[in-house]
Every structure is written in structure tokens, then in C-alpha cells.
Write a sequence for this structure.
């Protein structure tokens, strides 16, 4: 049997942003489990505020989760010293954010070379490798330009060159094409595909784009800090409602996507029937509804207007369509 190693494995991740403000603490992650196998590409979809960026930061060791463990390339990050953590990150993972990836006072070439210099490589060698990478991404002619002089697409390609220069085994990307025009975003995606298929690089990509999500082997849907559904191999985001699994976390919490909630009869009281291993049957009891619910007219994540359609998933970003109270 072939054993596939995990490149990143997190369990029971919780994160609370503490605040003294009136609205109090924000629980951004509520018991996340994820296992990314070496060479796997996973998309994370979900509405704004669902905890996607917090998750990426915790998984990449940029932020310490309030509790839970993250194991990267076999090492438990929560138990490493600051220095060990930096070293592990440097040789394993690179980040790509939506924007603001580059150091403003350095030209493109120096930005790309910077992680290698950081690792102690001589400047000459680092710059030579940086030029090769810029060439691979088709932006060598812009090597001497400062970020402010580059277009959004060029900046993102420089950021990707910098992410790739260390030969990472895993790329964590937070809406990497979110600020790009469709053509540039397609080019970036083609590059990711090439790295995934030919170099075996693993990806975890937060995205609102159907195209990016369909590049992934599977997609996970995040809502209110929990994975509420997993969408299988090669599944188009549009098909999610037909091809998904619900995930029950170790606290026993299961969050139903709105369309499923609607189909079983909406929020209310349910009686538990016979319990069998692997089966749970619920029967709804009629209760006073909390007001009449209807499908939201506009996607809360990307503002897509559903018009007259009764789609359950946003055709533009793949988020589940929520129910809203009529008249509210
Ligand atoms: N630095 C912070 N301090 C307090 N609350 C935060 C902070 N960053 C994010 N949050 C809150 O945590 C939740 C998840 O945010 P985030 O991870 O940015 O979600 P997403 O990337 O899916 O939009 C939101 O309710 C957000 O307001
Ligand atoms: Mg975010």
C-alpha cells in the first residue's frame, strides 16, 4: 500500500480574537480539522468573515491559534521555538496574498531574491536565481521596476516568483487572483496547475473564483469558522449541492448549509429517531417559525444578484445561498 504523507495536518483549531470592545470577542475558528496530503490541491470557499484568512494564517504559522495543533511536514508547529518555526516555514511553505505582497522600497528582482538572502544565500547567487524565476514568469524585463511602477498583474507575478523561489512544497494562497483581471488570473491559474501537476506542489487556496476552485482536487466550505461541507474530487463548485458531505466536528456540532436546512424543513425542533452506527434520523416537529424565510436575493459573499433564479449556490463565487427572513 502506498502511504501518502501529509504536508499539513491541523486538528481542533480554534481561534478567538480577544477584544475589550462592546461587541466582545470574535470566535473566528471553531474546531477545524484538515489534512492536506503531499501533492494535493484544496480550495477553501465561503463568505466574507467566515474565517478563511484566519485559517490560512494559523495553518502557515503566521499566527498562533488559540488552541489546537498544526503539524507541518511532520513537525508540530505549536511545539517549536521561534527559530525552529522560521526554519520549518522557510523550507516548506510560501504565502501568496490577494495584494500587498511586495516590499515597496525594493525592485522586483530584490523582492524575489529576498527570501533566499534571508536563508543566508550570497546576494549574487540569489539575484541570479531571481532573474531565472522572473524569466519563467515572463516579467524579466520589469526586474528593475519598483512595485509601485508595476501593474496589478505584474505585481502578483512578482509575488508568485518570490513565493516559488524557495521551492516550497506547499503554497498557501489567500484569494490570489482576487485583485486580478480575468486574463492575468487565468495565467496565474495555469502556472499553479503546472506546479501542481509537474512539480507536485501542494496548494491550499482561498478563492471566490469557480475556475480556481475547479482546479483543486476538492473544496471545503467554511462558514462561521467551521467546515460545513466538503466537495469531492474534480467537482465543479456549481455542483456542490449534489456532491457533498457534511462534517461533524468533535464537539458533535454539525452545521447545515442553508439549502439542506431548507429541504429538511427549516430551523426548529427535531426528534431523534433510532440511532445506528453511521445513520441518524431526524423528524421535524412543527414549531412556531421564526418568521417566513426565503432565499437571499443577493450573495452576501460577492454581491452577485440572483435575480429570479432559485440557484442554491452562488454561480459567481460558489458560496451557499443563505435564507433570509421575509421583510427583514
Ligand atoms: N485582527 C482581528 N481582530 C478582531 N477580529 C478579527 C480580526 N481579523 C479578523 N477578525 C474577525 O474574525 C472573523 C473572521 O475573519 P477572516 O478570517 O478575515 O474571514 P474571511 O477571510 O473569511 O473574510 C470575522 O468576524 C472578522 O471580523
Ligand atoms: Mg479574508
Amino acid at each position: 500500500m502506498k502511504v501518502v504523507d501529509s504536508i499539513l495536518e491541523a486538528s481542533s483549531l480554534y481561534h478567538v480574537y480577544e477584544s475589550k470592545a462592546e461587541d466582545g470577542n470574535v470566535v473566528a475558528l471553531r474546531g477545524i480539522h484538515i489534512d492536506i496530503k503531499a501533492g494535493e490541491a484544496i480550495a477553501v470557499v465561503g463568505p466574507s468573515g467566515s474565517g478563511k484568512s484566519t485559517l490560512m494564517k494559523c495553518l502557515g504559522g503566521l499566527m498562533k491559534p488559540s488552541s489546537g495543533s498544526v503539524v507541518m511536514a511532520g513537525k508540530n508547529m505549536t511545539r517549536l521555538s521561534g527559530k525552529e518555526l522560521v526554519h520549518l516555514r522557510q523550507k516548506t511553505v510560501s504565502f501568496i496574498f490577494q495584494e500587498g505582497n511586495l516590499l515597496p522600497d525594493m525592485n522586483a528582482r530584490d523582492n524575489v531574491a529576498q527570501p533566499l538572502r534571508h536563508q543566508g544565500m550570497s546576494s549574487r547567487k540569489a539575484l541570479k536565481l531571481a532573474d531565472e524565476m522572473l524569466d519563467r514568469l515572463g516579467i524579466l524585463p520589469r526586474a528593475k521596476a519598483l512595485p509601485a511602477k508595476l501593474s496589478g498583474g505584474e505585481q502578483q507575478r512578482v509575488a508568485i516568483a518570490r513565493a516559488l523561489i524557495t521551492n516550497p512544497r506547499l503554497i498557501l494562497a489567500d484569494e490570489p487572483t482576487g485583485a486580478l483581471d480575468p486574463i492575468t488570473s487565468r495565467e496565474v491559474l495555469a502556472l499553479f496547475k503546472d506546479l501542481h501537476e509537474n512539480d507536485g506542489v501542494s496548494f491550499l487556496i482561498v478563492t471566490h473564483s469557480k475556475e480556481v476552485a475547479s482546479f483543486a482536487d476538492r473544496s471545503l466550505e467554511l462558514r462561521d469558522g467551521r467546515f460545513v461541507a466538503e466537495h469531492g474530487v474534480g467537482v465543479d463548485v456549481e455542483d456542490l449541492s449534489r456532491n457533498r458531505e457534511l462534517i461533524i466536528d468533535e464537539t458533535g456540532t454539525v452545521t447545515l448549509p442553508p439549502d439542506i436546512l431548507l429541504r429538511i424543513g427549516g430551523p426548529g425542533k427535531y426528534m431523534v429517531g433510532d440511532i445506528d452506527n453511521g445513520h441518524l434520523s431526524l423528524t421535524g416537529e412543527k414549531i412556531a417559525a421564526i418568521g417566513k424565510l426565503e432565499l437571499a436575493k443577493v450573495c452576501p459573499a460577492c454581491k452577485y444578484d440572483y435575480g429570479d433564479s432559485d440557484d442554491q449556490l452562488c454561480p459567481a463565487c460558489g458560496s451557499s445561498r443563505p435564507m433570509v427572513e421575509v421583510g427583514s
User: Anything to note?
Assistant: The helical segments are 52-59, 82-92, 108-118, 123-136, 152-164, 182-199, 210-215, 258-264. The first strand starts at residue 6 and ends at 17. The two ends are 56 Å apart (CA to CA).
